[in-house]
Amino acid sequence: MKRLMIAATAGWMAACAFAEMTLVPAPQACSVQAGSFELATNEISAAVVAFTRDAAVPKEGYRLTVAADGIRVAHSDEAGAFYALKTLEQLAEPKGKGLVVPCVSISDAPAFAWRGVHFDDCRHFFGKQTLKRVLDLMAAHKMNVLHWHLTEDQGWRLDVPGYPDLVKYGAVRPASPAHGAMMRRLPNGERDMALDGLQYGPFYYTEADVKEIVAYAAARHIMVVPEIELPGHVYAALAAYPQFACRPENLAHRHPRLIWGIEKDVLCLGNDAALKFMDDVLDYVCRLFPAPYVHIGGDECPSERWKDCPKCRARMAAEGLTSEKDLQPWVTRRYVKYLEARGKRVIGWDEYLNGDVPKSAVGMSWRTAGGNGAGHKLVSGAEGAMKGHDMIMTPHDQTYFYYGQGLPDDPFQYGGSGRPYGGGKLTLEKTYAFDPLKGVPSEAQAHILGGQCCNWSEYTWNEYDLAWKMWPRGCAMAETLWLGAKKPGYADFYARMTRYRQRLLAAGVTCAPMPPAPQTP
Ligand code: ACM
Ligand code: ZN
Q1: How far apart are CA 50 and CA 34, in angstroms?
Q2: Ligand 1 in contact with 300 (CB < 6 A)?
Q3: Rounded to the nearest whole angstrom, what is the distance from the C-alpha of residue 270 to the centroid of ligand 2?
Q4: Contact, 432 vs 482, CB < 8 A?
Q5: Which of 24, 45, 12 is nearest to 91 (CA)?
Q6: pTM of the complete model
Q7: Taking ligand 2, which is a single-atom ion, which protein residues have CB atoms under 5 Å away?
Q8: For residue 244, how far is its CA from the centre of ligand 2 (angstroms)?
Q9: Whole-angstrom Cα distance, residue 275 to residue 281?
């Protein structure tokens, strides 16, 4: 017991070097020397650094030396050079008309290749300017994947050539849940299902918009992975083309789903025209997005419409499928092949790995024991990885930022238990405790590409709400994915974050307050 205490104290002392500074994420290895280097300019740019290429520096990594005579960076790729500049931006303090940087030696590289932020532009729409600010903040924290959730039951946000009705009908809602409704309980204990009666949209991105965002992200070493949901979560597309549903009459109103939650009307997998539509959308997406991945959703897809649809039953007979539940793995196999022929790997939420699905399909692990997913068996990160799938970890109870933070001054409090959040409570400390490798046997850990936070937007109306939910929890996520097992611990992070948060506020980021301080050892 005594020895353990000493070890813990020594670890804490070693980490104190980070605590003296404001680096978030903390670097893998850092030593601070006496003295500083002064810059006449008030901006960190490549011009203030002497760069050298060194093939021995790991991918995305860098070695940074700030000495009294100048700033030197060794790197093996462009991302490494970029991240060295991001570290310098955090180290630099204003001095007169210029900047001063403490003398340090930093050796740094990420623990995980996939350091993602998921962004739901469908339940609420944020637009290019907000997206650019999100990308700037991701880059500041060395996050490198934007998972762009572009299609949903409640809104279709991508203009696709040849399918003009997608945005005509799918990108505008005649009403939405009233502000804060659905999670709020009425005095009689029922869920408040009030609608606001306000037209929302049309909101969508054109081809030029997407190209602008993809280029903006690429300049910050961020890959944009589009998500086109299938075969469920397609109600907004069905509003545009009701003939692609098993029951077109259910879409006669021609508008997206108005409330949140799981929708039973999904893509009719017996209808060749519905599949041709999805082929065309994905073909366009493959041309528009340079990333080697396309996310096809696959979550929360009830199969009950397929069960009594003549077209779907004919498909099952033709394909030798014994249950309507087999239609989802059938369509997954179809699109794994279709997208591989276009040079893309498919990603989907964990339940799409149920059934006979090729190993090349990447899983996104969001559910933990007890999760729902419309009755589909949970496929955990460990299970997917043991079966040979690459996996991205985003366990809802540690990474879903639309969950409450437990802060006394969370905004938009309503009476009773009403809160402008979905789900449960996700404190900063719980986010920081996220470990993408937890429970994954060592022989399968190479299949864990990394992790991401998910910014579902049912209860996020605007950039103010978004920033409140994303930061500082996003900083905890960035540190976890950058440092992995070398994370210095929540107390160290908390001390740095408390200082660093002032910078975020000064930059106009409406991040949430810090929760109460942890008990120091
Ligand atoms: C999900 O949260 N439905 C992936
Ligand atoms: Zn059908």
Answers
A1: 21
A2: yes
A3: 5
A4: no
A5: 24
A6: 0.95
A7: 246, 268, 270, 309, 311-312
A8: 8
A9: 10
Show pLDDT as tens, one digit a residue, over the chain (521 residues). 333 333 333 333 344 456 678 899 999 999 999 999 999 999 999 999 999 999 999 999 999 999 999 999 999 999 999 999 999 999 999 999 999 999 999 999 999 999 999 999 999 999 999 999 999 999 999 999 999 999 999 999 999 999 999 999 999 999 999 988 888 788 898 989 999 999 999 999 999 999 999 999 999 999 999 999 999 999 999 999 999 999 999 999 999 999 999 999 999 999 999 999 999 999 999 999 999 999 999 999 999 999 999 999 999 999 999 999 999 999 999 999 999 999 999 999 999 999 999 999 999 999 987 656 678 899 999 999 999 999 999 999 999 999 888 887 665 543 333 356 777 789 999 999 999 999 999 999 999 999 999 999 999 999 988 999 999 999 999 999 999 999 999 999 999 999 999 999 999 999 999 999 998 65
**How far does residue 299's CA lie from ligand 1's centre (Å)?**
6
Q: Whats the size of the chain, residue-wise?
A: 521
User: Is the CB of 299 within 6 Å of ligand 1?
Assistant: yes
293 lines ligand 1 (CB under 6 A): no
- Give 195-237 as a DSSP string: B----B----B-HHHHHHHHHHHHTTT-EEEEEEEESSS-HHH
